[in-house]
Amino acid sequence: METDHEPEKIGSSRRTLLTRSAAEAAAIIRRGGVVAFPTETVYGLGADAFDENAVAKIFEAKNRPPDNPLIIHIGDRSQIEMLAEEIPESAAALIDRFFPGPLTVVLKKKDAVPSIVSAGLETVGIRMPGNEITSAFLKECGVPVAAPSANISGRPSPTDWRAVQEDLDGRIDCILQGEATEVGIESTVVDCTKPVPEILRPGAVSIEELRRVVPAIRASDLDADEAAASPGLRHKHYSPSAAVVIVRRGSEIDDLKDSGFIGLESSNSTAAKALVCSTPKEYASKLFAFFRECDRAGIAKIYCEEVSEEGIGTALMDRLRRAAER
Ligand code: AMP
Ligand code: MG
Question: Which one of 163, 184, 219 terminates a domain?
Fold first, then answer.
């Protein structure tokens, strides 16, 4: 059913509709609006990928630098052909194994994909989210949906709809209210345009899992390659207002009284805000919400315990390092 909620003009202050109806949210996308929606990784901020004006509103709402490309979210595998010029064998194997799921494949883009989406690159990142509400929403949209994370640029990605509201209320047309996200950190991005596919951004799917499908896959040296391959990674990411300090596992911290602590060991649980997790997976899923909780409490420094770089730990350490950059 169509609603009377009309997407408003770029730049105007707008009323942000809250809804639990995927159909209602999708109708707004079809009318050229911008909608925040849950996925299994983090909440995304979506618009019709073929509508340049709608996509421009995403950049404006987030204050996102124009050289940071968006990932296109699909509800159906057949949409890949609308977006990608070719699907190399390695990409086909990854798609077979990981779609739907938290993996983004970068492919050579078709001309039909507006350059605002790819930030001027000749490639496009494509992903098919796996959870039920997202898949219902994307199917109702009927068009591929370009979507970065639904936060103000630089801030931690939102893992629940209230975090989206905190950053974007009055700046977007609608929030599709789902549950808190399961994974809590973003998708793994793999560049499949090279002879040997390369991980541009570590994420929810680990390199170990990827190598079971494409053994040769490379973990890119992000420092050297990022500017050329994935301009968005250059920008500051995932930062709370508080300073983030990474500490060795089990180290005992002195000035805990006014600080935050998140990690796997209980030795620092006397911090003003402390979250001790039982697994790296739980740590990853709760990290961004914990950052926001500390900011709300006015905490100035958050200590984050290091984890070993295997499985989800690689992506978790990547996010911690970026959050710790000043
Ligand atoms: P976000 O959805 O906010 O996590 O941002 C999407 C990220 O995906 C970008 O910052 C890039 O790192 C990566 N990405 C998206 N599209 C491409 C592409 N065509 N080539 C390389 N990286 C991409
Ligand atoms: Mg983001």
Answer: 219
Name the percent of the chain lying above pLDDT 90. 84
**What residue numbers bound the domain in which 263 lies?**
243-324
Q: Residue 228: pLDDT band by 50, 70, 90 thresholds? A: low
Residue 100, preceding bond cis, omega within 30 degrees?
Answer: yes
Asked whether 149 and 288 are in contact (CB, 8 A), the reply is no
Residue with CA at minimum distance from ligand 1 atom 9: 232
Ligand 1 proximity of 189 Cβ (cutoff 6 Å): yes
- Strand, helix or coil for residue 47: strand
Domain shared by 213 and 248, yes or no: no
**Interval 199-215: pLDDT, tens:** 999 999 999 999 999 99
- Return the ligand 1 atom nearest residue 64 CA: 3
Q: Are residues 99 and 156 in the same domain?
A: yes
Cβ-based burial of 308 (10 A; exposed 0-12, middle 13-18, buried ≥19): exposed
Res 65 pLDDT > 50:
yes
Pocket residue to mutate for ligand 1, from 155, 200, 233, most atoms within 8 A of Cβ: 200
CA pair distance 50, 236, nearest whole angstrom: 27
Is the model's pLDDT at 226 over the cut of 90?
no
Whole-number Å distance between alpha carbons of 106 and 127: 9
